[in-house]
Amino acid sequence: MATGPRYHVQFRRRRQGRTDYRMRKKLITSGLPRAVVRCTAKNTIIQFINFNPLGDEIVAAATTMELEKLGWKNATGNLPSAYLAGFMAGKRASKEGVGKAVLDIGLKPPKKGTKVFAALKGMLDAGIDISHGDDILPSEERISGTHINEETAKMFESVVNKIKEA
Q1: Which 3 state secondary structure label does DSSP give 102?
Q2: How confident is the model at residue 5, as a pLDDT?
Q3: CA 18, CA 34: separation in Å to the nearest integer?
Q4: Which helix (H) or strand (E) holds 162?
Q5: Is the distance from CB of 73 to CB of 109 less than 8 angstroms?
Q6: Contact 42, 75 (CB under 8 A)
Q7: What pTM does this model have?
Q8: What is residue 135's predicted lDDT score, i.e. its pLDDT?
Q9: Are residues 93 and 128 in contact, defined by beta-carbon separation less than 8 angstroms?
Q10: I need a labelling partner for 95 at 20 to 30 A (CA). Which of 4, 9, 59, 143 fits?
Q11: What are the residues facing 49 on neighbouring strands?
């Protein structure tokens, strides 16, 4: 390990490869709430976060695990469930007064049609203004689940209606 007066130890989360501080600074200085999307193998977590020097404040959040209460019986790690979680989080954020946000996908590489952008499509459909390119969003048939089977598409529509009513 290098030593001496010119050696600078990086922040712990930077050393672990968990945080890109340059990107975080850009997102925070935008002055808009961050729409944070994090995907695991079985879940998608969406949070709307305001910056506070004492610690970030979560305005609204939703996960795909909450969909089971609304009648979702399929897996929670796929594109339709990511869309539904984004739609639910967007509805909750709009009730809290969030009208515009900036997307924070963390260290994930932005690939066309992924769960991150399915969640973005859900937030956009909920009425949140987030800048994006239309070519990166997944197709409607993948979002609705018709590529999986017809039962998933029917269940998708019923859950969307339940979220709209709530």
Answers
A1: strand
A2: 87
A3: 17
A4: helix 150-165
A5: no
A6: yes
A7: 0.91
A8: 95
A9: yes
A10: 143
A11: 34, 58
Indicate the residue type of 26. K
Six token digits for residue 27? 């997102």
Secondary structure (3-state) at 130: strand
HSE value, Cβ hemisphere, 13 Å, CA-based, for 40: 9
User: For residue 4, with 0-12 CB atoms within 10 Å meaning exposed, 13-18 middle and 19 or more buried, which class applies?
Assistant: exposed
Rounded Cα distance, 4 and 161, in Å: 63
**Domain residue spans of the chain:** 14-165
pLDDT value at position 120?
Answer: 98
User: How many angstroms from the chain centroid is the CA of residue 151?
Assistant: 25
Instruction: Find where tokens 């590529």 sit.
Output: 147
pLDDT value of residue 1: 65
Helices of type H across 30-149 = 79-95, 115-125, 140-144
Locate tokens 């399915």: which residue? 118
Report how far residue 63's alpha carbon sits from residue 166's, in angstroms, rounded to the nearest whole number.
16
Q: Profile the chain (166 residues) by mean pLDDT over runs of 10 residues.
A: 84 90 92 96 97 95 97 95 98 97 93 96 98 95 92 95 93
Q: For strands 34-39 and 129-130, give the pairing.
A: unpaired
| Lookup: tokens for 30 | 């935008």
